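Researcher: Structure for this, please.
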Amino acid sequence: MNDSRIMWLWLHNVMGPCNEKSIELVRQYDYIEALYEKRQSADILKVLSPQEFKNARTVRLDDCRALAEECDALGIRILCYGDEEYPEMLRNTRVPPAVLFCTGDVKTLTGTAIAGVGARLATKYGRDAVKKIFSPVARAGITLVSGLAAGIDSEVHRAALENGGKTVAVLGNEITRTYPSTHAGLREEIEAHGCVVSEYAPHTGSQRYM
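Model: Predicted structure, token format:
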């Protein structure tokens, strides 16, 4: 098994998802392996929160290996910041995720993309506007990105699927959970013609919808 992937999962489990300090720490030490070796150093510990400090002492590599094996068994691809296949556009954002959990075709994450999101209680006008705006974008070969939620998000995905395009669903919950559950069929279509991604591993929590 890729030892580097295990180290990235260790960092992910220590810092949690959506933590801007994760990549800052790796950049400080150049390599994820070097960061792991220095995990108890004063330079690292002084920037960790109490919970992160506790995690750094208690998260075991064996648990990370077990998570990687479970993901492999479930057909979940783990993309780490250090991987060549990690999306370059995402790598250059202010807070790039240390780890992404993916189902479907990860190659969809490369290339030109545009995001579309909106109200969950979408009006007919809103739905019609999505079709008018995003259908030609999908036909032009540009990947449509949205959140799989009810309303406008799902219409963005359908605009891609109905026009032979590619689409990516970014989840705010663990990768194995489809929310809303009524979008299970839509998710399957997205996985067949694109990719579903999440920063949340199986059996973990999520960000509350605001």
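Researcher: Any notable elements?
Model: The domain at 106-198 is CATH 3.40.50.450 (Rossmann fold). The chain has a mean pLDDT of 91.
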